[in-house]
Design brief:
Number of domains: 1
Number of strands: 0
Structural class: mainly alpha
Largest sheet: none
Keywords: Membrane, Transmembrane, Transmembrane helix
Number of helices: 2
Strand content: under 5%
Radius of gyration: 21 Å
Length: 85
């Protein structure tokens, strides 16, 4: 049987655990979205689809690919494990 004092002491820890799980989920979702954007932009730029884009859209695709490549390179230089990318 759990005493009321023990249950009350565990409540802040539950809230913290929930917050950490939500933040981890958001981080993974952001990494997944970044990977999709990087793949899409690379295919558009290198795959020959750039002739079908307007200049403005081509610049957006180039910027997104460059931004994601810089982000990935920075993480590797900081010593993060590749499993978290």
């Amino acid at each position: 049987m759990v005493s009321p004092i023990t249950a009350a002491a565990a409540a802040p820890e539950r809230e913290l655990n929930r917050f950490v799980r939500i933040m981890a989920l958001m981080e993974r979702a952001g990494n997944g979205l970044g990977t999709l954007v990087f793949t899409w932009a690379t295919v558009v730029i290198l795959g020959g689809f750039s002739t079908m884009l307007t200049t403005r859209k081509f610049r957006y695709a180039t910027f997104l690919a460059l931004l994601e490549a810089i982000r990935r390179n920075d993480r590797r230089q900081l010593g993060w494990k590749e499993g978290f990318d």
